[in-house]
Amino acid sequence: EVGWNAYANHAGGYVYTLCKKSDFDACRDAHLPAGFPGSGGTADATQEENYLQCVWDCFESNTLEWTPNSQKVQWRDEACSYARMDASEKVGRDGEIWRYTPIPDKLQVTLGGEGKCTWDSVAGFSDADVELKFLESFGTSDVCDSGPGARSPRDWHVMDGVRVPFLPGGEYLLGWRWDAYMADQMWTGCADVTILDVFPAEGEGSAPSSSTCPPSPTTAPVPTAGPTGPGPTPSPSSRPSDVPESPTPPPVPPPPTWDHPASAMPPIPVPTLSPAASAPISAPSAGDPDQGGPPGPSSCYDVLPLPGNWGGNGEHDCDTYESHGGTSYCVHDVLQGQCCFCGGGSSTGPPTPSPVSGPCTDHTLTGNWGGRGVYYMY
Q1: Confidence of residue 42 (pLDDT cuts 50, 70, 90)
Q2: Domain parsing of the chain, residue ranges
Q3: Which of 62, 318, 322, 374 is within CB 3.0–4.6 Å of 18 for a Cys-Cys bond?
Q4: Which of 324, 321, 348, 351 is CA-nearest to residue 336?
Q5: What letter does residue 197 receive in the DSSP assignment?
Q6: Could you give the 3-state DSSP secondary structure of residue 261?
Q7: What residues contact residue 233 under an 8 Å CB cut-off, 6+ apart?
Q8: In this predicted model, what pLDDT tens digit does every residue of 148-205 receive, in sequence order?
Q9: Are 91 and 258 in contact (CB under 8 A)?
Q10: pTM of the full predicted structure?
């Protein structure tokens, strides 16, 4: 059993792979300088490209098959509290089978994107208590994709069963890859695992799973009411043309992604938090609660610069995140507070520089205008 969690939901598809550790290490020895990283110096662009291709080939040579009817969303770390999901799948360019994330991003389907409404994937619940938690997070069955937790389903882990192929015993790297749909991003992660030539004793070396839980109902309940009522019905809005969070460090830029309507692009650097292609939805305008945006002043100014990696030393501002993911980023407190498109910002504009008396000195150009000090006012 494998699982992952999306602090910020971008929908899309995911897959698990295996790479033998000795083959992974061989890629390093074959394509990177001896001792790299560290005393071995740096690798040039060609060496890095060849190394990355070698590593990707290793992982993709063992794409894991899904166990049928195994997808579920689990409530936090409670292995016996979950909603069973009817998994949607898609064949990748090399014949591998990807699974779609079971929870669509906020307004993804409502505004014309691909996918299914949240409740259309529900096959049943482990118990009545987890059903109530699901209702609180995603609304009743008449709410498609605008429930309170659609944008950030952080309390729900996406769990699946995978089949381990007959491979030689030894150390392996388990790879996880998520190609986002509502943002032009790809996320990866890996874990150290060992494949044994013999089966361990019962209960040895394994974590609790749903196989040890009491049986759950076989049919999905049809809720008629819940703690939260239906969310507001959004008015149709236009979807801007394709463009390039989130909670983990930015991955190494990948080779072309799986068969998706738009090619994935490397994500922009963002801060680390606790624990992804189509066009994003239009950002709600301030003062338009029906579109999901909070009331705001008639004039709104972004509070800049953004702190830390959010600002990238002046390279990124609120416009960067609005055009490369839209309101998907508004789950983060920094952007909620400082960016107008997230309902934050300030009604007071930036201070006007005082007139300079005597010789005039140019101000340092900000953001991409300055190109990190490369460009000046000549």
Answers
A1: confident
A2: 2-195, 298-350
A3: 62
A4: 321
A5: S
A6: coil
A7: none
A8: 999 999 999 999 999 999 999 999 999 999 999 999 999 999 999 999 987 766 655 5
A9: no
A10: 0.60
Using CA atoms, how far apart are residues 364 and 370, in angstroms rounded to an integer? 7
**Cα four-point dihedral sign 67, 262, 266, 312:** negative
Token digits of residue 354:
């005082």
Which residue type sits at 351? P
Host H or E run for residue 85 = strand 82-85
What are the b/e assignments for 212-246, b being 16+ CB within 10 Å? Answer: eeeebeeebeebeebebeebeebeebeeeeebbbb
Burial (0-12, 13-18, 19+ Cβ within 10 Å), 2: middle
What is the rounded distance in angstroms from the CA atom of residue 17 to the CA atom of residue 19?
7
The distance from CA 99 to its chain's CA centroid, rounded to whole angstroms, is 14
Q: Which residues contact 229 (CB under 8 A, 6 or more apart)?
A: 139, 140
Classify residue 29 as exposed, middle or buried by CB count within 10 Å of its CB (0-12, 13-18, 19+).
Answer: exposed
CB atoms within 10 A of CB 352: 6
Q: Which residues pair with 99 in a beta bridge?
A: 14, 89
Q: Is the dihedral of CA 101, 106, 111, 117 positive or negative?
A: positive
HSE value, Cβ hemisphere, 13 Å, CA-based, for 266: 9
d(CA 125, CA 72): 9
pLDDT tens, residue by residue, 106-156: 999 999 999 999 999 999 999 999 999 999 999 999 999 999 999 999 999
